[in-house]
Amino acid sequence: MSRIGTIARRTFLVGSVAIAGGVAFGYYQYRKPHANPLLDELGEGEAALTPWVQINADKITLITPHSDLGQGAASMQAMLLAEELDLEFGQFEISPGVPSPAYYNTALADEGVPFNSHDHSFPADAMRGILGVVVKIMGVQGTGGSTSVPDSFDKLRTAGAVARETLKKAASEKSGINTTALKTASGKVILPDGTEYSYQELAPIAAGIEPVTRVKLREPSEWRLIGKEVQRLDILAKSTGTQTYGIDLEMDGMVHAAVKVNPRQGGALNSYDASAAEGMRGVLKIVEVTNGVAVVADNTWRAFQAAEAITFDWGPAPYPADMDGHWAEVANSFVEERLDAEWRNDGDVATALASGQSVEAEYRAPYVAHQPLEPLNALVLMEGGRVDIWVGHQFPRFAQQKVAEVAGIDPEAVHFHQQFSGGSFGHRLEFENITLATEIAMQMPGTPVKLTFTREEDFAHDYPRQIGMARGVGRVKDGKVDAIDLQVATVSSTDSQIARLGQSAPPGADTQIAAGAWNQPFAVPNFRFRAYKVPPLSPTSSWRSVGASSQGFFASAFLDELIHAAGADPLEERLRLCNHDIARKVLETVGDMSSWGTDPGENRGRGLGFVDSFGVPVAEVVEVTNTGDGIRIDKVFVAADVGRVVDPVNFDNHVKGGVVWGLGHAMNCEITYADGMAEQANYFDHEGMRLHQCPEIVVKGLENASRIRGIGEPPVPPAAPALAAAIFDATGIRLREMPFNKFVDFV
């Protein structure tokens, strides 16, 4: 019995006891819906038929509470609501709404349990159910983990249907005609004689009746929007440069702030000399903030310049000062006392490895930055015991609570205004920009203060992806992969993030330390996987695809090495080992797409990567050419199964973006530390894929899985191992450490 099985049962029992210990309260709280936050500020004649639909005489507003970080979440949510509400794009406005427990994310429980995403046994789904209860009671409103689509798909369609049927009921009261005889189309209720009532016209009546909660969702054959090619709501604004982000906000009387915080993250500010900055043009105020100093000026550029003029004596870093110390800590973590969990122990690994042809390899994945195009920023106004904050954030209720903690006020006195974000990739899970802006605003009550990070400050306080290492030993027998013993050691980004929330790490195994490696659908006869938790080093955070971004590389690349040692075909051997029908179809599809098995040509190579993460099996084939001057990536084929492709255009964009993200960071990117400070400070020294390096990418979305999933993160993990395999095929060079440009050049 593997150790993780014991942990899973223990966690389940503890959770069951906790629920059973408060059955009456817990069950009531779980079944009782959260209050509709829209009802608090309704005007006369307005109707908030659900927490997602608000109608008045002038307009229809659809609430899209999942943060739009550039990934199209707002359009996706609006599409689901409009599908059932019978609205056309252009007939409504969208709003992110306010932080509210009503917008809790039901899908967050899926990745938080130590079970395979495709395991729907009683213990697995029972634990997901328990976590779901906790998520609801706590009202955890959040965007991330590719959960926006699975959380929204049924919930928002139902909300749209409730609004539709309630409007039909209002039309029935107005006309005296039974609802069964009424139809809806294009924002109107239509009577049998052709008379039309607009939704806005019906809003005052609908506001006074009980919502109709017994509704029937439309069949896929009736869908007008879902699964169809529609234009995202933000395309025009983004194409014309008129989309407004947090960094663009202006307000009467607003001042601008820049910060300098100890670049040794968590280190103290010993002293500073601001005399050179105090007399600079436009400088209004210089104030101390946590571990640093802020300059307030009449525009952003002057604040930046003055901050650069200040000299500092920074305290030491609470982690190793250079990379040798970081890697040594990781390498020294492959010991029993740091074992987080033995996730798998199938067959008899020790006996299998004792004889036959063995393969050993060690892999490394570095720290990497999030580097969204829009640097962190926040606009805060503190006045009369109330705080208003305008910022883009992935967990608005947590952000609201953080502001309240810093300001020493009740969270209800914090009014959070969600903004569109210019990228995140996990970066906008953090709170440093929010807490620092609040600290500055507290020293300037009544004045709106907009804090903007310089790119360099953003990199210095990025909370990068975790550093990690893997050690693999395997055996091949009779031309087949027979045994794998894979160990990984990595920092826990989960623990790091939870600590910044002032909480302790939860009990049980850390799923992100093992993500993308332990749960792959390959039935190797003898397979053991162990995950070791490295003590905290530089603080880290979730990065697009989280643990699977590195562990997926380790597992897929090592399997590729073993297949080569066995003399087998990389696709055929994976298909032979594959024990999951959905994954098998994904592999077969990408093989057909890429004409796998044909000769790639002289000086060319073809590589396959497969990682199942966030419940989505993704296979990628990368084709490269060894030009003599370096490696050129020519073409990428991708197959992925998310159960249901809600928006084909955005699906295609997500997959292509994920591939470019995964390839670019595998090629070029790492954060290194010297004297406790990040050595990379901007795009020129943490360079992703350039436009001229971007390959043609061909995408196929499959719909065989029984449960709908998100696609924001799953395309990232297979990219690195597919590229490494392609380079090996073209050059014979095995790449086991990212970034690959340490060992090969790219053109």
UniProtKB/TrEMBL annotation:
Superkingdom: Bacteria
Family annotation (Pfam families): MoCoBD_1, MoCoBD_2
Record keywords, A-Z: Membrane, Transmembrane, Transmembrane helix
Domain Aldehyde oxidase/xanthine dehydrogenase a/b hammerhead, residue spans: 240-318
TM region(s), chain numbering: 12-30
InterPro entries xref list: Ald_Oxase/Xan_DH_a/b, Ald_Oxase/Xan_DH_a/b_sf, AldOxase/xan_DH_MoCoBD1, AldOxase/xan_DH_MoCoBD2, AldOxase/xan_DH_Mopterin-bd_sf, N-heterocyclic_Hydroxylase, OxRdtase_Mopterin-bd_su_IorB
Protein name as annotated: Isoquinoline 1-oxidoreductase beta subunit
Organism listed in the record: Aliiruegeria haliotis
Upper taxonomic lineage: Bacteria, Pseudomonadati, Pseudomonadota, Alphaproteobacteria, Rhodobacterales
